[in-house]
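Homework help board

Subject: predicted structure for assignment chain

Our instructor gave us this sequence and asked us to write out the predicted structure in C-alpha cell form, then describe one feature. I got the C-alpha cells but I'm not sure how to describe them. Can anyone check?
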Amino acid sequence: MLKSMNPSTYKETLDYIYGFVDYEKLPGASPRRMNLDRIEALVEALDHPECHWPSVHVAGTKGKGSTASMIASIVHQSGYRVGLYTSPHLVSIRERIMVNGVPISEEEMSQLVDKMRPVIEYTHQESEGFASSFDIMTALAFLYFKEQNVDLAVIESGLGGRLDSTNVIKPKVCAITPVGLDHTDRLGTTIPEIAREKAGIIKRGVPTVSAPQTPDARTIIREVCSRLECSLCEVGTDIHYTIQGEDTRQQTLDIRGREQTYHHLTIPLLGEFQACNAATAIGVVELLTQHGLSISADDINRGIREVRLPGRMQVLEHQPWLILDGAHNVMAAENLTQTLQRLFPSRRSVLVLSIHQDKAVDELCRVFADYADEIIVTTRRVLRRRQADPEKVAALCRQSGTLVHVTSSVSDALEMARTITTPYDLICVTGSFALVGETMEVLQNLEPEETLSR
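My C-alpha cell output:
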C-alpha cells in the first residue's frame, strides 16, 4: 500500500474524513439502499484488519457506550491490550478510537489515513455509492487495532446494528443493551422493528448477553438467538445486581453473575442504569473467560472502579452543582431525570438544553420540562444542521408550564444559568452529546476541532 508523498497534517486529515457524507449529521439521510457493501469493500482492500483480533460487539439504544467502556476497562485491568471503538465523540474525533484508554494520536491518525487513501479512492471507483465518514472511521479503527496488536477489541455499533458499518466483524460475544425508540427515521417506528435492527449484530453460534428489555424487544432477541443457535444470558434472569449504596460520586453494587457473585463493586458512575450496564459488562466478561482470557474477580472490581465516562452524569462543580449528561433519547432522559430527583431531591434545577431534530423532540421536551424548574434552550456553534430549532424546542417545553429562555450561544446559556441559580441549586447540561462536548470546549477555552475543517 502506497504512502502519500507529502504527509498530511491533522487538519488536512479531518478535512478529508469530513469530506465524505456524514450520516450522523444529516437527519433522515441514510442511503435509500442501505447495505454493508462499502465497508466490506474497504476492509477487503485493507486485507481484513478486523480478522486480526478477537472482538466483542455491543448494540442497543441506551448504555452501549458505557457497557463497551466497562468491558474494555475490565479486560485492560486484567493485563491485556484492549482496543475500544465508540461514538459519538465529545471534543475530539480521536476519542472514538482508543487502546488501553488512550486515544489515537493526531500523528497516528494522519499517518493511517494517508495509508488508506489509495484504498479509499479505489473502492470509490469499484463500489456502488460512496463510503461515509463513519465507514472511513470504522476501517481506520480496525486497521489501528491491527497495528497496535490488541488482544481484544470492543466495538460499539454506531446506528442500529444489522446495517451498521461495524457489523462486518465476527465477535466472540455480542451484547444488546436496553432497546427503546430512537432514530425512528432510519430504524423503524416500533420497538420490535428497532430490536430486530439491534439484534442484527448477533451471529450464528455466538453467545449473547442482553440487558433487561421490554417484552417486545426481549421476544425479538430471544427469537434471533434461538434461530441462530446462540446461548442467551439475560440480566434480570441469569445475572442480577443489587445497589448497596450511592452518593453524588459513586455507587456500590453486588452483582451475581453466572460464574460467581462480585461483592462491593464500586463504580464512579451514577444512576441505576449504570448498575445495569455493569451487570451486562460482567456477563460479557464471564463469557470471554471461555475464550482463553484470564480475568479474576479482582480484575473485575478494578475495571469497574477505574472506568471513566465523560459526559455521563459527570459532576464538574458543586456550588451550584454543574452536571453534564448527553441524554439524547427518551429512555436516557427518563433515567437522567429520575436519578437527579433521587440524588438531589430538594434542589432547584435549571437545564441547559439542545436536542437533535431527528430525535423524539416532543417527548424529550415533555420529559425534561416535567422535571426542570427552569430551562435554557441554546443554539450550538457546530452541527447546526442537525439541531432542532431552539425556538421550537422552547415552545414545546413551555407547554408543561416551565419557564424557558433561549440563548444564541452555549457560553451565554452557561452565564445565564449561573446568574439565575444560587450555590444550592443544580445546573444540568443535557439533550445531546454535541451540547455536552461544546460545553466542555467553552469551559476549557478550547477551539472546536470540527470548525477547523468546515
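Reply (TA_rk): Your C-alpha cells look well-formed. For the description, you could write something like this. Confidence is low (pLDDT under 50) at residues 28-33. That's the kind of observation they're looking for.
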